[in-house]
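User: For my dataset I need records formatted as: sequence, then structure tokens, nothing else. Please produce one.
Assistant:
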Amino acid sequence: LLPGAFVRRAVTQRLKDAQNTLALLTTFQEADLTGSLAFRDKYKDAFKKAHGVDLGLLSIILKACASGIKDFPAVNGVIDDAAGEIVYRDFVDISVPIPSPRGPVSCVVRNVESKSITELESCLAGLMQRARSDQLSPEDMSGATFGIADTGSVGGMLGTNFINPPASATLGTNGITKRAAVVDGKVVARPMMFLSLTYDHRLIDGREAATFLGGVRDKLEDPSRLLLEV
């Protein structure tokens, strides 16, 4: 067997079990990232100097998701099939893709709802360091209440995602490319990214999913919304 074959087999079985149990549905949005990219580029040097970590887009995406979950708690909930209950969680633990020598691994950022951008970047830096040195623990990779999957780093443009229980929804981020957009009545080139939300339709209805994803888009297009909580 190839190295890691047993891990791959376990992951494959878990994903197949989820596919057989969950009612998977996906909705899509398109975000103009001009605002987020300008925010990052404006403050990245000062941020690095002040906090010793890089300022990236992932922390902004994490905060946008956690903010949206406040308004749509079902996105962060789960159906307990054994008990026949719906569990709404008051904490937001989000899985994110982290690069490692063995390829990307899904690691969990805990309590995103209560962390600042600085704390999130420090947490992400710590996960990346542990991944590089092969020191990730099972706790680092399990128990997410929501997921983020990224195909943009390998050139992905649009796609659906799997859900890794006990999460009930996964946000898909994709490549940022210059595309035509209408701004103030004029056609201009803007850095655009397609977003997707794959969710368990047994728990989350289409209106909730589409409105949640639209809110994430709005916060990515104007990150100042995160400060004002609007």
